[in-house]
Write a structure and sequence with these properties.
single chain; about 400 residues; alpha/beta; Spore Coat Polysaccharide Biosynthesis Protein SpsA, Chain A; UDP N-Acetylglucosamine Acyltransferase, domain 1; about 25% strand; glycogen metabolism
Length: about 400
Amino acid sequence: MQDILTIVLAGGMGSRLSPLTDDRAKPAVPFGGKYRIIDFTLTNCLHSGLRQILVLTQYKSHSLHKHIRDGWSIFNPELKEFITVVPPQMRKGGKWYEGTADAIYHNMWLLSRSEAEHVVVLSGDHIYRMDYAAMIDAHKQTGAELTIACMDVPREEASAFGVIETNDKQQVINFKEKPDDPASMLSDPSKSLVSMGIYVFTMKTLQDALHQDAELESSSHDFGHDLIPKLIDSSGVYAYHFGEETGRVAKDCYWRDVGTIDSFYEANMDLLEPVPPMNLYQKNWGIRTYEPQLPPARTVSSATGNEGIFINSIISNGVVNSGGSVHRSVLSSNVRINDGATVADSILFDGVSVGEQCQLQGCIIDKHVLIPDGTVIGQNPVEDAARFTISSKGIVVVPEGYQFS
């Protein structure tokens, strides 16, 4: 698709995911044992034939840059393919990116250099699989100036999203960002149609809208709050229903904004369901990532005779379970479970070592944490709160490199 330029917005702070985002950008947060969050968006681009990609970064972006360099240097510039990381260039008066639209406005020079006729704008911090090619085809067929990917959610949950109203031709006639009283769908009053933050613009429409928005001092320079409501009045804006894709990707219609500790935890746990709501095993839509060369995971009988046990868990390369018991958990690479330790309903990032006789329940342990023998986490909320972050649903988060006293 040489006429398509793709822009991935990957510069958000992700403050609600703290402490997982204290030292990394939200799109770089590990997910599912071996991936990073941004891998899902980039994989969708790869399988959809989008090979001209700009990734706009900003906040604590070193690990994100490194991951893209190591895992995504796969395109051929001789075929005009590229994936380019673009931190703030200070071309607009020395400012940082100040909104989703402002981030692209700062890089208008890249748009002007492109020969593309259409621009796909994506977020780098959602978990889903989608064939963007089908949405682009629909955009071209309707002659739309802007097409917005959307999905239906229960009306009581819609206030967290941009809510869309359409006519019978799927043309958008109203858009409100995070309204207190969301409009319901005509076909189902119990649900609302919401934006997924996935857009296809004609190049000229996007450039004109960004220039106009930049001149408004009252604007927050955000697509949902500012650009889209104005475009509805002046341009052809259409809705594209997520799941309309056919053929290449399974219609699981799974999409998650993992913007909080609880939503991040629940999305990881979704992968452990007997039939996961998102299929990571579809052979023609594999999720690409960077993975170091490590030995296979293994279990070991401990000196005391305990057998290492894994039950309903995701186990990455390099994991060694020496006489411990792991239940319904997600383990990243190089995790070590020692004799008599129990890990349940938890997520362990790279290089975590769980000492002998430890008990972990409902935890997220960031990378390179060495947990001393006999430590108990996730069973005493008062003690846990004195040391760690606890989510609204009781998930205990131990930050990267935490030193136990």
